[in-house]
Amino acid sequence: KNQVEQSPPSLAVLEGENCTFQCNYTVSPFNNLRWYTQDTGKGLVSLITMTYSDNKKSNGRYTATMDATAKHSFLHLTAAQLSDLAFYICVVGALCSPGTRTLYPNLHLDVVKEHF
Structural domains in the chain? Predict the structure, then answer.
């Protein structure tokens, strides 16, 4: 069965801290893995797309790593900002297998401004 699991389901960090999301999948045959972000009430915004041969890709403060053999990916965010508050979504596509591009429970990031 093709499946995608993300963790942690919710994460709160202080402004300026780093954080990491994980995506595990059993999709086969694997085509690509995409990380998206989505603000409440808005559309998906693509962060990074990875194919089987990609080990690491970056886009600004976002860095994604992937191990296609172990079937997992990590999305690292450096120096979280208040504007990063959103849902983070991992989508895994399979080759020639209909119905495998499914959205699974989203990861939510809260960024908290420290009060002095």
Answer: 4-111 (2.60.40.10)
Count of alpha carbons within 13 Å of 89, Cβ hemisphere only?
18
pLDDT in tens, 91-110: 998 776 455 444 445 566 67
74-105 burial, b for 16+ CB within 10 Å, e for fewer? ebebeebeeebbbbbbbbbbbeeeeebeeeee
The token pair at 10 is 């919710």
State pLDDT tens for residues 49-80: 999 889 999 999 999 999 988 999 999 999 99
